[in-house]
Amino acid sequence: MSWRPRLVALDIDGTLTPVGSNDISPAVKAAVVRATEHGALVVLCTGRSLIGVAEVAAQLPVTFCVCSNGAVWWDPARHEVTRRVTFDPGPTIKALQTLLPGSVFAVELTGVGSLSMGEFLPGDLWGVTRQATFDEMTEPTSRLVMRWLDHTPAELSFAVRELELPGVEWSVDHIEAWLTAVPLDVTKGSALEEISAALGVGAEDALAMGDGTNDVEMLRWAGLGVAMGQAPANVHAAADEVGPTVLEDGAAQVLNRYFPG
Q1: For residues 155 and 148, is the Cβ–Cβ distance under 8 A?
Q2: pTM for this structure?
Q3: What is the DSSP string of 190-204?
Q4: Most buried among 91, 147, 174, 258, by the most CB within 10 A?
Q5: Which helix (H) or strand (E) holds 207?
Q6: Domain boundaries, the chain
């Protein structure tokens, strides 16, 4: 095989691990390690906040971490946030409250946890969560998340089909009735464009894998974008190919093609 990626960009939930878990299977872990032994740089690219990334990053030889859908960059070797982009979440909260009665919201406190307006489900939020007033929720943040309680992902997708949220990038989850908003023009793809250039790697030499709507820009950016088997149709359509599911250790199966033992 003549082509071998020099950079591997990996989503976490639904790609490296089952959704909401920090458990990486031995096969996936071994495949990622082997990629670095062949000289590839590994970048984790996730919608998780920084506090939710650290335990996964500690298990792997990771060069860099893109958190909060591209709004927070973290260097694990230096334990340092190298970029943090913020926005005013107030107008987005107001718009979603009007459209989606019963929704609850959380804004990221980078490296700490979240401020929450309403009660999320157990395990939804990483780190320390504190209930807050609307005024407290309108401080600049890198990431706003919303769960529409007692509704399905399909109901949420239908409800927001014509939604316009000026000033932010937003995506909905295909597993939970969950919406994430980050600053305008910030995506996993835009972050990787800058990071890869700084590392001296072009998009044509990058492999990206993901399973969510927030992975679409990343999959389109990479020389080879692979959607996980369980990803929804729009993610499959954005990818160059569709791999096995996360339950089949799909990330390992794809990596093993380019970085054999």
Answers
A1: yes
A2: 0.95
A3: HHHHHHHHHHT--GG
A4: 147
A5: strand 206-210
A6: 7-84+186-258, 90-183
